[in-house]
């Protein structure tokens, strides 16, 4: 039902459901949305989300022969089931890409053994069907970055509804912390993240997988509080109305900040810069932004954050100055970045 929180689901479970959904809809033209959702044990919102993805799937990696499935909100129609049901013919490049990917996924740590064996059986069938076209794939391999093992553990924890222990590096604070989290879902927005309930902060947090230094699946059950999942299609960071307000002024060279940071307002300034008002649950994390901007920007408020940013800049200059002085003879003294003094 509309507005009902969507339950956590991992990628493997969703893929299984969508494959079954294709067969189910082929045999039931004009099926009612509520009946299909009930048959699969999911909400109507989850079903509609699957239906939004299915038209991007098909039998060709080149974009042809896609599933022509749509809904009017009450019934579901599949317009080209016979075309898609034709025997699959893989070109050499398609067979190679599919086999290399399948073998790589089969080596992921943390993959459930039943899923691994099913994948290997499917790979063997594709090799037989592809014939000589499968030869090139045996000479190629894929090596996953360390993120791959973390992904597998998170995906398994979500599937088995178990809590995770992680050591996590936060670049904003330049520190590594230990946390126990109840994973909710995996999200890909540029990088791959896990959205979870953090037991340390007692709040919803998002962790980037390549910043997880160590991870363990715990015996304790995962029990995040019920919450409505956020729409992350626009941006991963979505400040809340109650988050602290920060005002930043940037010069022409810092206008990019308004493009990358969600903000409440961005007012034009006389010299071509912007006065940007934004909200963030962690204002201290913006000190790094202030240092990156240098003379192209400065934090205006809150005052304590502006002071800490200036202090961070002074300390950075001291670190570069071997003698510990802020400036040497012949070097200009420190000035506040993007000084607007008249």
Give keywords.
alpha+beta, 5-stranded antiparallel beta sheet, 4-stranded antiparallel beta sheet, 23% strand, disordered N terminus
Question: In a nutshell, what does this entry contain?
Answer:
The protein is α+β, with helices and mostly antiparallel strands. The chain has helices spanning 11-27, 33-40, 44-53, 81-84, 92-106, 113-130, 147-160, 257-260, 286-293, 303-320, and strands at residues 31-32, 69-71, 75-78, 162-170, 175-189, 191-198, 203-208, 212-221, 245-250, 265-268, 274-279, 297-301. The strands form 3 sheets. A 5-stranded antiparallel sheet has the order 7-6-5-4-8, covered by helices on one side.
Tell me what you see in this structure.
α2 crosses α3, α5 runs antiparallel to α6 and α9 packs across α10. The relative contact order is 0.07. The protein has 342 residues and is α+β, with helices and mostly antiparallel strands. The strands form three sheets. It has a five-stranded antiparallel sheet, covered by helices on one side. It is elongated. It has ten helices and twelve strands.
N- to C-terminal separation? 58 Å
The gyration radius over C-alpha positions equals 26 Å
Low-confidence runs (pLDDT<50, min 5 residues)? 1-8, 323-342
Report the major sheet: 5 strands, antiparallel
Proportion of residues in β-strands: 15-25%
How much helical structure, as a percent, in the residues? 25-40%
Order of helices and strands: HEHHEEHHHHEEEEEEHEEHEH
Q: Number of DSSP helices?
A: 10
Question: Would you tell me the overall average pLDDT?
Answer: 75
Structural class: alpha+beta
Sequence of strands across the biggest β-sheet: 7-6-5-4-8
Shape: elongated
């Amino acid at each position: 039902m509309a507005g009902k929180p969507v339950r956590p689901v991992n990628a493997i479970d969703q893929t299984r459901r969508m494959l079954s959904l294709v067969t189910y809809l082929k045999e039931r033209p004009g099926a009612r949305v509520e009946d299909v959702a009930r048959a699969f044990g999911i909400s109507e919102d989850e079903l509609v989300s699957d239906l939004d993805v299915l038209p991007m799937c098909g039998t060709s990696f080149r974009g042809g022969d896609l599933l022509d499935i749509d809904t009017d909100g009450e019934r579901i129609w599949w317009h080209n089931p016979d075309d898609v049901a034709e025997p699959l013919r893989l070109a050499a490049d398609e067979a190679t890409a599919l086999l290399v990917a399948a073998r790589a996924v089969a080596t992921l740590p943390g993959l459930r053994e039943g899923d691994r064996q099913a994948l290997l059986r499917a790979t063997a069938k594709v090799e037989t069907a592809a014939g000589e076209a499968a030869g090139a794939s045996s000479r190629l391999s894929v090596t996953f970055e360390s993120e791959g093992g973390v992904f597998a553990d998170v995906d398994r924890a979500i599937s088995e509804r178990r809590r995770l222990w992680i050591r996590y590096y936060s670049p904003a604070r330049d520190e590594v912390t230990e946390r126990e989290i109840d994973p909710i879902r995996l999200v890909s927005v540029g990088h791959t993240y896990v959205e979870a309930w953090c037991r340390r902060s007692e709040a919803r947090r998002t962790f980037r997988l390549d910043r997880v230094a160590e991870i363990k699946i715990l015996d304790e059950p995962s029990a995040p509080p019920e919450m409505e999942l956020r729409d992350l299609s626009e941006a991963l960071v979505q400040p809340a109305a109650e988050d602290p307000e920060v005002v930043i002024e940037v010069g022409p060279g810092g206008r990019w900040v308004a493009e990358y940071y969600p903000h409440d307002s961005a007012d034009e300034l006389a010299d071509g810069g912007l006065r940007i008002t934004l909200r963030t649950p962690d204002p201290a994390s913006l000190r790094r932004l202030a240092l990156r901007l240098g003379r192209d920007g400065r934090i205006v408020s809150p005052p304590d954050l502006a002071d800490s940013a200036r202090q961070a800049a002074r300390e950075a200059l001291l670190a570069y100055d071997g003698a510990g002085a802020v400036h040497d003879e012949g070097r200009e003294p420190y000035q506040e970045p993007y000084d607007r003094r008249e």
